[in-house]
Design goal:
Elements (H helix, E strand, L loop, with lengths): L6 H23 L4 H20 L2 H14 L6 H17 L6 H23 L4
Helix pairs in contact: 1-2, 1-5, 2-3, 2-4, 2-5, 3-4
Length: 125
């Protein structure tokens, strides 16, 4: 059974997810600002995942530590979090010609974040 989530973190997870979707929609409507908006959408989706799992500051510190070690991560949840961070870092370095790939990656990350939020909160996100 999943541990219960307090209303504060649940509220922030849902808010971050809504904002991520809005940022991606704005990126699709405004190609001149799309790279910044796509990156913001990805970071907000990541924040939704972090709020769903626990205290974002602590989770981020653990993820950054494992990225710095550059070793295989055995724990599947931690591996997912590390790979998500790597994808965001890679997207931050994309050029305008890679825009479509970044938008697709952001959409996939938002969907995964939505799945995590629904799984943990029980609320349709």
């Amino acid at each position: 059974m999943m541990p219960s989530m307090d209303d504060y973190r649940k509220g922030w997870a849902l808010r971050c997810l809504r904002e991520a979707r809005a940022e991606l929609l704005a990126a699709n409507k405004n190609p001149y600002m799309s790279s910044d908006l796509v990156l913001d959408a990805m970071k907000k989706a990541q924040a939704a995942i972090y709020y769903s799992l626990g205290e974002p500051v602590f989770i981020e510190a653990i993820v950054r530590q494992h990225i710095g070690e550059n070793k295989h991560v055995a724990d599947p949840v931690l591996r997912f979090l590390v790979e998500t961070e790597r994808a965001i870092q890679q997207a931050a370095q994309t050029t305008d010609k890679d825009r479509e790939g970044a938008v697709q990656l952001a959409g996939n990350l938002i969907q995964m974040a939505s799945d995590v939020v629904v799984l943990i909160t029980g609320v349709k996100a």
